[in-house]
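yo

u said u wanted the structure for the complex thing, so here. seqs first:
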Amino acid sequence: MEITYLKSNQEFEDFKNNEEILVVDFYSTECPPCEKLAPIYEKAAKIFPNLKFLKILRQDFRSLAESLGVSGSPTVLFFKNGSLLEQRLAGEIQEAELVNILESISGEKALVVENDQKIREYDLCIIGNGPAGMTAAVYAARYKIDQLLVGDLPGGLMTSSHKICNFPSEIEISGMDLSQKMAEQVNALEVPQISGRVELITKENNSFILKLFGGEIIKTKTLLIATGTKHRHLNLPKEDSFVGRGLSYCATCDAMFYRNKTVAVIGGGDSANTASLYLGEVAEKVYQIYRGDSLRGETAWIDQIKANPKINVLYSTQVLELLGDDRLSGIKIDREFEGSNELLIDGIFVEIGSEPDLSLINQLSLDTDRGHYIITQEDQGTSCLGVFAAGDITTGSDSFRQIITACSEGAIAAQSIFKYLQVNKK
Ligand code: NDP
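structre next:
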């Protein structure tokens, strides 16, 4: 079934009252997890043809979103016979969680989409389409390597930076725009691409067999792992349940929900610093909670934070507890501030860095350091012959995890793979 884009509040009431099951995706522009959800949501509409799927641009229906308790993008709500159900999904939504809820509320099984089971073969498969993967794809295209680029969001984590001021040739650019520019170059070079995620990798003789979430099977002579990292969580009780209910991992996506409100940003690196500055433009007050005694990262951002009267940095402070029942209403910290160890806030932004996703690393038994980053050689090769790695997931570039160093590793990897393929013609 086709997805409907909401045009009026009345239309929403009509769908709610007339459809047995209504699924609603509140999305925003400038929202990387919303873009990631879009193909998953489209697929869901196809495999559950009896349910009604609606998309609502939050910026155009602000009060409707507020009345339904939506405070993060994307948020997916479910209605049955006119009533809002308790289940809801927010933030980085996975296909499996959406399908599980749809099956449970509808009592229907998802339709099985017939896949073309023909195995496609390549000389190189790049997994991950952030700056490392996209740069490698550009170089591989120039080397005329028979390649495939697999990824679920062009730009990856870079898309969540609202302002980038240290990428050569760009005085100031948003992460979304820089990602878009890189993606345009990859598209112009006609690099074959699949939007999706790799689920399984096995080694078979001198090749690698990849199974994607959609069921496609790929065979490749070499692999470049450029999957970057995922947001680190505080690992506090209730953290998952507050996502989209006052807790966010993406300031660019959700800052607008906190116009003239009080928020806290957790962390003391560039992600936290830039999030505080961005929130400082819309919120009334920003507490930046940092466990160390002086902020890390670029001095230019730190100077702007110190000069901003709306931002109050609480140093040597840790969050002990997330407060609230259905929605986050405050945080408990490990010291007194203005006579209390509880801060009443409308929302928190967790910006405490990121860590590698271990699933593919473990499947290939790659050597990693203690932080689980893939150990790479000068040529970006790994402990497994034919497997290369580039970008934030590696120990390369002196662990200086920047867009420019990810691009550099991607370029080096592509050249190494070119040489490797020349020697290992099969
Ligand atoms: P970082 O690892 O640099 O910083 C993470 C911060 O979170 C640190 O201050 C760390 O504290 C704190 N932290 C980690 N774990 C916890 C925890 N469990 N509880 C409380 N605090 C915690 O990650 P970033 O995402 O900030 O940056 C990653 C890279 O990306 C950097 O190289 C950065 O320069 C780059 N970047 C650049 C941007 C830009 O230029 N626009 C924007 C964002 C990132 P501690 O300091 O004590 O270790």
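Residues 161, 163-164, 166, 232, 234, 266-272, 274, 291-292, 296-297, 352-354, 401-402 surround NDP (CB under 6 Å). The chain has three domains: 4-106, 120-231+354-423, 239-350.
cya
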